[in-house]
Amino acid sequence: MRRIKLSVNGVTYEHEVEPRLLLVHYLREGLNLTGTMVGCNTSNCGACTVLLNGQSVKSCTLFAVQADGHEITTVQGLQSNGEWHPMQTAFHENHGLQCGYCTPGMILASVSYLKENPNPNEEEIREALEGNYCRCTGYENIVKAVQQAAGQTS
Amino acid sequence: MIPVAFDYEVAESVDHAIELLGQYGDESKLLAGGHSLIPIMRLRLAAPAVLIDLGKLENLRYVRDGGDHLKIGAMTRHRDLAFNEMVAQHCGIVGYTAGLLGDPSVQHRGTIGGTLSHGDASGDMPSVITALEGSIVVQGPNGERVVKAADFFQDYLVTDLGEQEVVTEVRVPKLNGNTGWSYKKFSRRSQDWAMVGVAAVVERSNGSIGSARIALTAMGATPLRATSVEQALSGAPRDAVAEAAQSADEGTSPASDSAASAEFRRHLARVWTKRAVEEALSR
Ligand SMILES: Cc1cc2nc3c(=O)[nH]c(=O)nc-3n(C[C@H](O)[C@H](O)[C@H](O)COP(=O)(O)OP(=O)(O)OC[C@H]3O[C@@H](n4cnc5c(N)ncnc54)[C@H](O)[C@@H]3O)c2cc1C
Ligand code: FES
Ligand code: FES
């Protein structure tokens, strides 16, 4: 067992964990933050995407011990003072989801990408989301949502 | 889907990592970005007893001007390289390829030291560094050595790294204004690994081709130079490219697998070598 201390959605946690515990399982089962999904567990689908120090990562491809001393944001920590993050609003308004399983990962990957490129074109948005699979929407409304959020935050 | 249990150590410095490797021997593995290692541990294709995490070594995360070359720290993340201005200016092929492999989340974690040390012949960066004739700085208990890319990749997933050695830096030449580059990766779906990849670094000279260095991804157990194409292009006119590229698969030994047959890979190597050299000549 190994002691870790990290911040998740602004709250500091300290826990003893097994080194082999994946971050996604720590979040879901340890902290009950079930907004972060497990889709493939093979590092491909992006359903488990969270922010590590503000950058998108796949939490099924990180051990919880590697997050020691770092800051994690999950979809449940995106809102501030009861207000949705503009990306959440944009997904809502553009109907950028159907079943919603991919949505937390989509939103976090998009939030991360707009920090790197605040004014992407459509092709760039599609490229940036290549590691996030959606089996429902056909991506059209997801791309529209990111375009709307880019307009608002730039 | 859950890795076999292991012990976890955090390296506080390169020397500490070397010491830990000495202590735990071949039961242990270094952990950099984890984006090759963790997937294979989850599948239980690897089950190291001890992981030695290099994640705290921020001092190995840099791009520096080395005069005629760039020095890239082993823990530099792919995404750092994709957005690095010095890399874009002097050795664009490295930044381009780092921004191409996997997806942004993979690039946020994966490191250049990790992808070279892993030595996967389907990896994109090994052939790019091979075409650049770059070198890899390795530190071990007896000090530091500099290994040419051509000597570093030895077999499928086998490199020249000794048991107690750590990659600390990668060196790539600064390309001058007469030198163009291209990396062409062919795969069926975005985010897939290369079915075949072609890295080309081409020097122009008085309207014709001065010299060309071409390395192929996934055409054998290691990155392979397309030597006969290189020879045919040396000093050749620009319109020699199509014919020269016909020998791109000479001396290669591609695998047949679920992604492509060996024969298809040979075809792809010829087609994409032509396109890569042509693109390199135009940029
Ligand atoms: C979904 C997905 C898609 C991907 N797509 C591509 C792709 O298209 N093209 C591509 O090239 N790659 C791809 N990758 C792999 C990615 O580039 C990895 O980041 C890279 O191969 C390994 O780097 P790492 O830092 O993650 O290494 P790790 O996984 O941490 O380590 C890999 C190996 O190298 C050793 N090692 C690591 N660092 C050092 C060091 N400094 N010195 C000595 N040994 C070391 C480790 O012990 C281990 O054996 C993909 C990965 C994923 C998960
Ligand atoms: S569950 Fe992590 S990428 Fe699919
Ligand atoms: S909305 Fe169902 S997977 Fe995307």
Structural write-up:
The complex is a heterodimer of chains A (154) and B (283). With 154 residues, chain A is α+β, with helices and mostly antiparallel strands. In chain A, 33% of the residues lie in helices and 16% in strands. Chain A has a 5-stranded mixed beta sheet with strand order 2-1-5-3-4, covered by helices on one side. In chain A, a hairpin with a 2-residue loop joins strand 3 and strand 4 (55-58). Chain A is globular, with a radius of gyration of 15 Å. The model of chain A has no long low-confidence stretch (mean pLDDT 96). Chain B has 12 helices and 14 strands. A 5-stranded antiparallel beta sheet of chain B has the order 4-5-10-6-7. A 4-stranded antiparallel beta sheet of chain B has the order 11-12-13-14. In chain B, helix 5 (92-98) packs antiparallel against helix 8 (124-131). Chain B has 3 domains: 7-52, Uridine Diphospho-n-acetylenolpyruvylglucosamine Reductase, domain 2; 60-173, Uridine Diphospho-n-acetylenolpyruvylglucosamine Reductase, domain 3; 179-282, 2-Layer Sandwich (Enolase-like, domain 1). Chain B has 283 residues and is an alpha+beta fold. The longest helix of chain B is centred in the last third of the chain and has 20 residues, at 262-281. Chains A and B meet through strand 4 and helix 3 of A and helix 2 and helix 6 of B. One FE2/S2 (inorganic) cluster binds at residues 38-41, 43-48, 58, 60 of chain A.
